[in-house]
Amino acid sequence: MSIKKIVKYGDAVLRRPSKEVSKISKKIQTLVHDLLDTMYAKNGVGLAAPQIGENLRVFVIDVSTGNQPLHPIVFINPKIIKKSGACSSYEGCLSFPDAYTDVKRYANVMVKALDIHGKPFTIEGKDGSLLARAIQHEFDHLDGILFIDHCRSTFEANRILTEKGLEPVEEDKLLSEPEIEKELESIPSNPGETILANGEKKPEDEA
Ligand code: ZN
């Protein structure tokens, strides 16, 4: 188990679709522990295998805060089985140091996955909670999708990316999300401050 180097935006591994895990071998269990060690070392709320250079369908999340005990959740071969509603909030990513932008997400998401022992489980993130958003963020990594592909304003996203010395958004990767956009029409884009979807989103949350 070790802390791995995080792959940064611009590396092709982040855009490559990841493969299903065929067997939860010792190698996969080591990968899970490396993901957890690296996520905690970097104070992230989530980390996906491609972010440490492995194109496998594995990610970890821990949305516990402050003095709460650690609560790691391991997702292997996850499938999103239900999604609904819409929300918008500032997101960051450990592969994009210090860059945050306003992104569109579903408010509710239900996912089925295998845990580190290969046991299936189902988990639901609701009401635009950090868990709901982290699941979508990490799940996207497995399909080569990045949070900036969901940005509400390309102009604003490019401003912050440039400021942090990162490449601008890839226009051909921007997602058309009419379902979410329609629901979000009533929620103004507010690049000046973090939109507190549930009161627990902090600007330093990076996934
Ligand atoms: Zn990320």
Describe this structure in words.
It is a single chain. This protein has 207 residues and is of the alpha+beta class. Helices cover 22% and strands 24% of the residues. The protein is built from 4 helices and 7 strands. It has helices spanning 26-41, 130-142, 154-163, 178-184; strands spanning 46-48, 58-61, 73-84, 87-93, 96-105, 108-114, 120-125. The chain has a 5-stranded antiparallel beta sheet with strand order 1-2-3-6-7, with helices on both faces. A hairpin with a 5-residue loop joins strand 6 and strand 7. Residues 191-202 have low confidence and may be disordered. The site of zinc ion has 6 residues, from helix 2.
**Average pLDDT rating:** 91
- Class by helix and strand content? alpha+beta
Element order: H for helix, E for strand:
HEEEEEEEHHH
Give the count of helical stretches.
4
Question: Overall 3D geometry?
Answer: globular
Bound molecules: zinc ion
Strand order of the largest sheet: 1-2-3-6-7
Query: What is the CA-CA span between the terminal residues?
Result: 20 Å
